[in-house]
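The instructor's notes for this session suggest beginning with a concrete chain rather than abstract definitions. Hand out the sequence below and ask the class to guess, before any prediction is shown, which regions might be ordered.
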Amino acid sequence: MVSPPPPPASESRSGNSPMRVVFMGTPALAAHILERLVAASGKDFIVVAVVTRPDQPRNRGMRMEPSEVGAAAARHGLPILKPIKIRTPDFLAELKSYAPDLLVVAAYGRILPNGVLEAPRIMPINVHASLLPRHRGAAPIEGAILAGDRESGVTIMRVVERMDAGPILLQRSIPLATDETQGSLKDKLAELGASALLETLAILRRGPIAEIPQDEEAATYTAQIKKEDSIIDWSAEAVRIERMTRAFDPWPVARTTLGGGELMVWRARVVDDAALAGSSDVATAAPGTIVRVKPEPIVKCGTGLLALIEVQAAGRRRMAAADFFRGRRVEVGARLGQ
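After discussion, reveal the predicted structure:
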């Protein structure tokens, strides 16, 4: 789908004209929302341009490749802007040349300056993957799992220059499954976010929308996830470590060491075994100690016990932890994380 050229600056748009949308986003979650937006384009709104991050070297060949949003926009023949800097007169002029009614942002990855936020005729709106004001910032999906939240969702909000602090236009929630991973929750929230966005656009098409200020005292924050965040601290609670295995699946994957080599932990389970936890050998064992190897390896944590279900050694395939430990002949008393 190729969007029509922007109207001349002097041309006023009638109330019957479709709203002109410029979409800003980068990762797969945002690409799914863009796909839904393009598919629903028509008499109510059209996507006239897409803004995404510049191409990056990827995969083993380290070839320059577009972001997931950039690739999706190219498939639909949409004009694509890939500014290195967004606080420049040149980018602002190019953005304004598309005469946007709405700026729709989904995981773009940068705080937008006021000049950009003032470019759309109606307003800039954001699709955020949490129930704001909870989990503002770059990692709301991982944050919800790590916090043990029972529900998550999406927030459609007006964008302001402060991070994720704008008034709420619409929210939709879903329960979190007990085995929810970062990957599974991203898929669910991508679809929920797309539906919530289309619902919001339908309201805006009819007229003004209610804007609800966020409760600043209830705000929590998340930071960009780095690989070092995935290193397991065995002095932590078993519950916390189990959440790590789900929050960091598929990236960066919770990890530890065994015998000097790296070991990724894909799946684990908190063990509720009072007799085992109360035994003298387990009670005196240091965190990270293997306290049982059959039928599955169990690790002593700072608080509680954790059964390892699925692991992966560097350069090897994922496999059942019981098979891995049996093959390596790991015995009770071995330490992880040393």
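Then share the key points. The first strand starts at residue 19 and ends at 25. The domain at 19-222 is CATH 3.40.50.170 (Rossmann fold).
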